[in-house]
């Protein structure tokens, strides 16, 4: 290792690596990974195990690594930090995986990480058949930045959000088969991976039999139709599973408005577990509402289920103008911002949605309001609720704050991973 180990002082004097040096490093790259050197005073987050090294933190790259190649990250002073995977086409230039100098990112490494993710879910769910759909691998939180795997009964739905992980698809699929023995594995793509990672992939079957359409899974005893081919995300919103049940305990006899209902998680849970009186569900997606109705039928509560295809803002305005009131209102909008620049606009949208929701809520009702934009902090969200309370003249008290279900662990090293917020408010 010693001759590829960067010397920070030397780098500082020599500036960028000469083409001669690069050629030498490239010819030896089969034997040793390329080297990435950070700028002075940029190493702390990575010693503290944040896995994303943005291009702006990097001073030099030596050894001519190609997209997906393993690299070793050093501080400006030449101290080893971590092993990572390189992508010249991504703002996240290096994703870090192993902070142990003796543990490179090889098959054994992937195996150990996947096994650990599988063990965590076995501890959460065991042989319990009450939950048959859950997140098996949660990217950064399972030390596998760029890999998301959800289990839906005997099928797996996989998302690659990093070029390097997608490149190792065969190895990852083999390991998943070794640990899980699924009936089939499907690939679901996220919008934007071409721009973000230079990754061009399309949805499809990666292994085994195609999943039945629809596939029926169980969440705490409730049955859900999921469509692994066309459904949102990898098929459904598994992150809200425990929040569906948490809300249900407060809604007995309530008239519930489930806004952004998708396939009915909150509303159907409220009817079945919570014995709510009735649900009006709103979503702009016709296929989601059709599935929601079938889910209501599957769970025997379709008589108390009503839905409307509409834009949430417009539907809430019409309900308000018609003088309708509800005992409980759920707001679970999609991610409203992906960039910091769009944050103020997103906060205005959260504000108007919540303001509208409060306007159709009876005094002493519950508002279950969610936010899945990772860029919105708890502080931002609570400030928005405070503004809504002041402007609407209603007293808002937060009675329960929750995140994603336990199968979506959060990494203490990568707070960006903690995206989902669920606030239950008592609105006097
Ligand atoms: N509450 C659901 C998940 C909601 S996901 C659950 O717990 O499973 C967000 C939903 O918002 C999607 O179903 C999407 O179709 C819907 N949606 C997006 N924009 C909308 C809009 N302007 N009006 C109404 N629904 C919208």
Write the layout of secondary structure elements.
Elements: H1 8-14, H2 19-27, E1 34-38, H3 44-47, E2 52-54, E3 58-62, E4 70-74, E5 80-86, E6 92-98, H4 107-125, E7 133-138, E8 147-152, E9 155-160, H5 163-167, H6 169-180, E10 184-187, H7 193-197, E11 204-208, E12 215-219, E13 222-226, H8 241-248, E14 255-259, H9 265-272, E15 278-283, H10 286-298, E16 305-309, H11 312-321, E17 326-331, H12 343-359, E18 361-371, H13 378-392, E19 396-402, E20 421-427
Parallel strand pairs: 1-4, 9-10, 14-15, 14-17, 15-16, 17-18
Antiparallel strand pairs: 1-3, 2-6, 4-5, 5-6, 7-8, 8-9, 10-11, 12-13, 18-20, 19-20
Bound molecules: S-adenosyl-L-homocysteine.
How would you describe this structure to a colleague?
By secondary structure, this protein is of the alpha/beta class. The chain has three domains: 8-21 and 106-208, Transcription Regulator spoIIAA (2-Layer Sandwich); 34-98, Roll (Archaeosine Trna-guanine Transglycosylase, Chain: A, domain 4); 239-427, 3-Layer(aba) Sandwich (Rossmann fold). The protein is 31% helix and 27% strand. It has 13 helices and 20 strands. The chain has a seven-stranded mixed beta sheet with strand order 16-15-14-17-18-20-19, sandwiched between helices. A hairpin with a 5-residue loop joins β5 (80-86) and β6 (92-98). α12 (343-359) crosses α13. It is globular, with a radius of gyration of 24 Å. The model is unreliable at 1-29 (pLDDT under 50). The chain binds S-adenosyl-L-homocysteine. Residues 237, 240, 260-262, 265-266, 282-285, 288, 311-312, 332, 334 line the site of S-adenosyl-L-homocysteine.
């Amino acid at each position: 290792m010693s001759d590829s180990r960067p010397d920070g002082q030397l780098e500082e004097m020599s500036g960028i690596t000469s083409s001669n040096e690069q050629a030498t490093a490239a010819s030896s790259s089969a034997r040793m990974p390329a080297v990435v050197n950070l700028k002075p005073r940029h190493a702390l987050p990575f010693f503290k195990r944040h896995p994303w090294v943005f291009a702006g933190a990097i001073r030099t790259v030596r050894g001519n690594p190609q997209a997906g190649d393993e690299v070793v990250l050093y501080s400006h002073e030449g101290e080893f930090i971590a092993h990572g995977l390189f992508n010249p086409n991504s703002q996240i230039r290096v994703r870090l995986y192993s902070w142990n100098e003796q543990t490179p990112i090889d098959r054994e490494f992937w195996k150990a990480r996947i096994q650990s993710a599988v063990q965590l879910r076995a501890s959460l769910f065991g042989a319990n058949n009450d939950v048959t759909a859950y997140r098996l691998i949660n990217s950064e939180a399972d030390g596998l930045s760029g890999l998301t795997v959800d289990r839906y009964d005997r099928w797996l739905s996989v998302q690659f959000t990093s070029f390097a992980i997608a490149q190792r698809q065969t190895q990852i699929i083999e390991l998943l088969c070794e640990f899980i023995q699924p009936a089939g594995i499907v690939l679901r793509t996220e919008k934007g991976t071409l721009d973000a990672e230079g990754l061009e992939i399309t949805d499809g079957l990666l292994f085994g039999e195609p999943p039945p359409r629809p596939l029926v899974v169980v969440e705490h005893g409730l049955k859900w139709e999921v469509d692994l081919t066309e459904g949102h995300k990898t098929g459904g919103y598994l992150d809200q599973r425990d929040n569906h049940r948490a809300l249900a305990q407060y809604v007995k006899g309530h008239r519930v408005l489930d806004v952004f209902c998708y396939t009915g998680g909150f509303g159907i849970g409220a009817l079945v577990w919570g014995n709510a009186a009735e649900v009006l569900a709103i979503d702009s997606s016709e296929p989601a509402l059709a599935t929601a109705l079938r889910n209501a039928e599957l769970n025997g509560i379709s008589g108390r289920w009503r839905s409307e295809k509409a834009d949430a803002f417009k539907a809430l305005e019409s309900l308000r103008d018609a003088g309708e009131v509800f005992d409980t209102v759920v707001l679970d909008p999609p991610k409203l911002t992906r960039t910091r620049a769009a944050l103020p606009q997103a906060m205005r949208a959260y504000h108007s949605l919540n303001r509208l929701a409060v306007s159709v809520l009876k005094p002493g009702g519950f508002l279950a309001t969610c936010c899945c934009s990772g860029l919105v902090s708890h502080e931002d969200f609570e400030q928005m609720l405070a503004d809504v309370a002041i402007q609407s003249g209603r007293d808002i008290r937060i009675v329960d704050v929750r995140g994603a279900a336990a199968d979506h662990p959060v990494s203490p090293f990568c707070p960006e991973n903690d995206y989902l917020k669920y606030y239950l408010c008592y609105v006097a």
